[in-house]
Design a protein that fits this description.
alpha/beta, six-stranded mixed beta sheet, 4 helices, 29% strand, binds zinc ion
Length: 94
């Protein structure tokens, strides 16, 4: 089961993660690209942007510590996650 978190705006929702670039794009309403993988059992859904995807492609698609430092994943509630998704023009499921 996915853990719940308490969002200031949406209340108690499932935990999700997005890279810092997407997290910042929510307020700026500035599309940065949206790649994501769906929630699985106890793994929350997680999203990353075009530049993070490019980094992954250039570096053997491995989720190294270096990549995670670059992406600087932020915790979001599932509604904030959907909001981020809705401002993006291109959505890719990975
Ligand atoms: Zn990113
Ligand atoms: Zn929220």
């Amino acid at each position: 089961m996915i853990e719940k978190i308490l969002c200031d705006i949406h209340g108690s929702k499932e935990m999700s993660f997005a890279c810092i670039h997407i997290a910042e794009a929510i307020d700026a309403k500035n599309p940065v690209g949206f790649f994501y993988s769906e929630a699985e059992e106890d793994l929350p859904q997680i999203a990353w942007c075009n530049s993070c995807e490019q980094y992954l492609l250039d570096n053997g698609e491995e989720w190294t510590d270096q990549f995670q430092a670059l992406a600087d994943f932020k915790m979001l509630c599932s509604d904030c996650f959907d909001e981020a998704k809705s401002i993006e023009l291109e959505i890719h499921l990975r």
